[in-house]
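lol so apparently i was supposed to do this last week
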Amino acid sequence: MRIGHGYDVHRLTPERKLILGGVDIPWQLGLLGHSDADVLTHAVMDALLGAAGLGDIGGAFPDTDPAYAGASSLLLLERVMEKLGAAGFQVGNVDATILAQRPKLAPYLPQMRDNLAGVMAVPPGRVNVKATTEEGLGFTGAGEGMAAHAVALLLER
Ligand code: MG
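anyway here it is w/ magnesium ion bound
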């Protein structure tokens, strides 16, 4: 078994969509980034790559590469899964937490879990997605950005 951790932050800005776990969430602000800036999926990918000893998404998908401009992070997760498969790993389970003051994310969490589980080809019960505020503190509390943490367990085939 191999364990990995991922952490990511993106800034909130007007005129961007808010995409979390592949779910398009209606909100006045969205996350700024080279791809769709799906901070949850980015943290999950970094946890997977970390567990496999395969570096990070900055190395796998450079933000200088126009191929990834506006890219769906679920498609990037598919690429990560190809890398894991080639290296002989499968996903055991993933647990992730989104840090966001607003909007209320609870209604969207099951769809995020299902999206991530689908791409990782595991039953939804092996994926857990949570959300919390930071009680108005720091950059997430001020609504300047969102962060996400993830841990992943990989199984060697
Ligand atoms: Mg990111």
